[in-house]
Amino acid sequence: MLTSFSCWFVEPSARLVCTILISLSNSGNNIQSATMKNVVGYLALFVFIGLANGQEVITVTNGETDGRWGPLETCPSGSRAISYQTQNEIDAPVVDDSAMNTLVLFCDDPLQTNLTSTPGYTGNWQNVQNCPFGAYMKSFQLRVSPAGNMTDNTAVNNIRFMCSNDRDISGIGNREGYWGEYSAECPEGICGLETRVRPDGGLLVDNTALNDVRFTCCAAAEF
Ligand SMILES: *[C@@H]1O[C@H](CO)[C@@H](O)[C@H](O)[C@H]1NC(C)=O
Ligand SMILES: *[C@@H]1O[C@H](CO)[C@@H](O)[C@H](O)[C@H]1NC(C)=O
Fold first, then answer.
1. CA 196 to centroid of ligand 2, rounded, Å
2. What is the number of domains present in the chain?
3. Phi/psi of residue 136, each to 5°?
4. What letters, b where the CB count within 10 A reaches 16 and e where it falls short, cover 160-170?
5. Given this model, what pLDDT does residue 147 score?
6. Is 53 in the pocket of ligand 2 (CB under 6 A)?
7. Out of 74-83, 154-163, 188-197, 198-207, which region has the weakest mean confidence (pLDDT)?
8. Are residues 45 and 121 in the same domain?
9. Ligand 1, CB cutoff 6 Å, lining residues
10. Are 69 and 154 found together in one domain?
11. What is the reported pTM?
12. 43 with 90, same domain?
């Protein structure tokens, strides 16, 4: 008898977890009851259905929560992310600095496909940062100004990636805030991007632009 079926998202891996509880009734005839005694009251089946074709999602814990998650964008099949570029409002001499606005990842397919999920709305494009030749991006770290005790919140200020040859790459970002811990690693590299951006709220809002990012790992079968 199926008594319960439920699904929920479990952070930080953002996996969809479904639990099916099958209740084995003790009622019924004697043969059934004897069988049931060998089974502990309930049998719980945990079915893990990963999002995006079973791929892991890597996250960090110091992102901020303004705005909404944008769409998942992924590299073309068989390619993965090897470089990135950011758009930052660098220490703007204005009251309301939004710091890092946009993150762009570049895939290693022939067209050098780029991923942005949700673009920001202001700032200057910084230099492209590349993993050394032959290496790919596998984990990341964010520098974030935590919300709350600042008159000018900026959320994400900078990002740094670890490449598959254990060399890190980073560019010029905003200097405020603190570096958090590195994310888990994608063994076969990063293949998907989602960004959480607070849209421009105008002059009456403490704008923060980019608040958080998360990446989908590549499928091992494709490499
Ligand atoms: C990303 O690709 C699009 C389409 O090819 C292009 O218009 C855009 O300039 C690219 N962005 C960056 C930052 O290179
Ligand atoms: C602001 O918050 C951070 C982290 O929560 C803390 O380390 C820092 O000391 C705080 N700054 C002030 C001025 O309270």
1. 23
2. 2
3. -135, 160
4. bbbbbeeeebb
5. 83
6. no
7. 198-207
8. no
9. 85, 104, 114
10. yes
11. 0.74
12. no
Q: Are residues 36 and 63 in the same domain?
A: no
Which residues are within 8 A (CB) of 186 and not within 5 positions of it... i.e. 6 or more apart?
A: 56, 58, 138, 139, 215, 217, 218
- 103 and 78 part of one domain: yes
Contact partners, residue 123, CB within 8 Å, separation at least 6: 87, 88, 89, 90, 98, 100, 101, 102, 209
Q: Is 76 in the pocket of ligand 2 (CB under 6 A)?
A: no
pLDDT the model gives residue 20: 43
Among 103, 114, 126, which is best to mutate for testing ligand 1, by the most ligand atoms less than 8 A from CB?
A: 114
Which atom in ligand 2 lies closest to the alpha carbon of residue 149?
Answer: 1
Give, in order, the Cα–Cα distances in Å from 30 to each of 34, 37, 44: 6, 11, 24
- What single DSSP character describes residue 52? H
Residues 155 and 94 in one domain: yes
Tokens representing 93 are 């001499």
Q: Are residues 108 and 41 in the same domain?
A: no
Ligand 1, closest atom to CA 125? Answer: 13
Q: Which atom of ligand 2 is nearest to the CA of 150?
A: 1
Tokens of 123: 């700032």
Q: How far is the CA of 179 from the centre of ligand 1 (A)?
A: 29
Structure tokens at 92: 């703007």
Closest of 199, 103, 202 to residue 157, by C-alpha: 103
pLDDT score of 90: 86
Determine if ligand 2 sits within 6 Å of the CB of residue 149.
Answer: yes
Q: Is 146 in the pocket of ligand 2 (CB under 6 A)?
A: yes
